[in-house]
Amino acid sequence: MTTTRAEPQPAGFADVRTTNLAVVLRHLRAHGPSSRAAIAAETGLTKATVSSLTGDLIEHRLLRETGPSGNRIGRPATVLALDGSAYASIGMQIAPDQLTALAVDYSGAQLLLWHRATAGTTAEIVALAQRAASRVRQQGRHVLGLTLAVPGDLPVSGADLRDRVAGSLRRKDLVVTVAGSATLAALAEQRLGGQRDLAYISGAAGLEAGLIIDGNPVRGGRLGRSVLGPAGTPTLADRAGIASLVRRALPDVDPEALTDLGSAVETVAVRARAGDVTAGKAVEHAGGYLGQGLALLANLIGPEVFVLGDHYATLAEWLAPAAARELERHAPTPIVASTLGLHAAALGGAVSHLHQVDIGRLPDNDR
Amino acid sequence: MTTTRAEPQPAGFADVRTTNLAVVLRHLRAHGPSSRAAIAAETGLTKATVSSLTGDLIEHRLLRETGPSGNRIGRPATVLALDGSAYASIGMQIAPDQLTALAVDYSGAQLLLWHRATAGTTAEIVALAQRAASRVRQQGRHVLGLTLAVPGDLPVSGADLRDRVAGSLRRKDLVVTVAGSATLAALAEQRLGGQRDLAYISGAAGLEAGLIIDGNPVRGGRLGRSVLGPAGTPTLADRAGIASLVRRALPDVDPEALTDLGSAVETVAVRARAGDVTAGKAVEHAGGYLGQGLALLANLIGPEVFVLGDHYATLAEWLAPAAARELERHAPTPIVASTLGLHAAALGGAVSHLHQVDIGRLPDNDR
What we know:
- The structure is a homodimer.
- Chain A has 14 helices and 13 strands.
- Among the domains of chain A are: about 15-80, Arc Repressor Mutant, subunit A (Orthogonal Bundle); about 195-345, ATPase, nucleotide binding domain (Nucleotidyltransferase, domain 5).
- The two termini of chain A are about 25 Å apart.
- Chain A has helices at about 15-30, 35-45, 45-60, 120-140, 160-170, 180-195, 235-240, 240-250, 260-275, 275-300, 310-315, 315-325, 345-350, 355-360, and strands at about 35, 65-70, 80, 85-95, 100-105, 110-115, 140-150, 175-180, 200, 210-215, 215-220, 305-310, 335.
- In chain A, helix 2 packs across helix 3 (about 45-60) and helix 10 crosses helix 12 (about 315-325).
- With about 375 residues, chain A is of the alpha/beta class.
- At the A-B interface, helix 1 and helix 10 of A face helix 1 and helix 10 of B.
- Chains A, B: GO terms for molecular function: kinase activity.
- Chains A, B: Belongs to the ROK (NagC/XylR) family.
- Chains A, B: This is Sugar kinase.
């Protein structure tokens, strides 16, 4: 998910065409259905070029003709509209006890959302990936790619996992990528929320930050490992991580019973809302230290907004004010709660493949 | 110094030409003097295109013909060589009590290095900038730009300072930019050391990190402000900053006498080398906490190498091993000492304008 090296290569017509395809797609996303003449007038491309580009896009089923436009004198012009339905992209979120598969079409509309209990084997991942890909292909869609969202502390390398999954799929032409869950969740926030610059704070595995800086995903973000102080000082995850928050907030609950983090966090929210002092203090404590962690990011990287994600979003009502009090002493930055829920990383994995089309890299059309 | 937005624009022949100019310049930087035919053969450009591009570069005095090449049969081909001497770029480093001006030509050769004591007024900055620009213009060079390197904690905004300085210069066509000292020092390390990915750690003003990630400067880097712990916990600058290090290492020296940080740090180095226990312990203490700070950066951003800069470089012999012990528990990353000295930010400011030529944006030639 890092940016590629920008070594200059001789520029030619293929680059020009790719850029111009991106210009046409972007115009239609921003302005809605338009005639060829209107596209030409507003993009600065010649009419002949627009005709050729839109022909290519129609052939790739990314545009369709929607009949004549009414608002002009003379021969009515055919209007072109974006058509996302011929393409699908799949994200899978890999958690310790659950797999989630989510597919969207090129317009971002959700095509499927499946959850499966898992023991964490590659075979289970491959089986679910295969079923999801088959389903959207049966619907007549070309699959742009499949992204596996993994927690930052996964005990295998991303490249290994990608090779094992890609090698086991029946269709070898499916593009498989692997990326960190927090980064992909940030990508989902970027595409759906329109933010070009944000830090998504995930509590799902330790305490991770997904960073999109000036439009580009940035590696790193292992916020929970932060520690400053003499030997033996707790890490930020010890102080502000979801697991330690839940242990502090629910001292009467057997830790063995807390493996489903989602329902434990819901219980904390219920108790905090009911005025339970122990739960309230635990959330306040975590929120203050979370704010110190956000201040680290604000000073070192300076994202424009912090998005409290997944389990932190569930508790944002209490966490955000406590965190904001710490943060405002450093670099006042808005803190908002994510509305994408617990499978934002799967969504981010799915939308990550749409970008290649946005930038004019049209897929081969054999599905 | 942030990356620009990559909104697609219709691509045309101007972009193609700019890219191809960059390709030719890059080829000559990498391979040394070459004939037009050799450039064409190795870049994949046609001979006609290479003739046109090199004609443009000769007109801009970036290439010169150096006579026939010997190693070929038949009519000898004229060899083209890069010529950096017609262009100059100026960096100025603004410290509390000193201004430094440094100019380089397009090949990176140093043209001047001036220091002035200062009370910190805009008039002093303008006067020195003007003298430096006049000097290199008298030598027949076109000035690509002037960059002011400011500490991260400067009490005015960069844009304000730029406007005041640019507005007071006699020549209004001189491009003036302002950027953080640590970032510019990192840029100098990148251009001269060839590292595409590094964190330059500066002790000159607080404790700042200049970040170049995958070839691009990244904003932020205010490492000294980091703090994690209960209310009243010292910041990282309190624990690992140069000012606090010097106070701990030289308890017998009047703090009022320590305004020249450079000579105080030299004294610490002399005492540490002589086996002075107080100085040795102070450097060890700062080095350990500096390592915790580098670990924050390693976990959050993951630079490929840490470069201990300016005053930290002077003490690197003792700081680096102590820092490495903390860092290796997180993400083992090389720690090296900068060799660019105390005016690396001025050098970075100067070289920052050379990049526009590298990427094929040829300046107007009226100096």
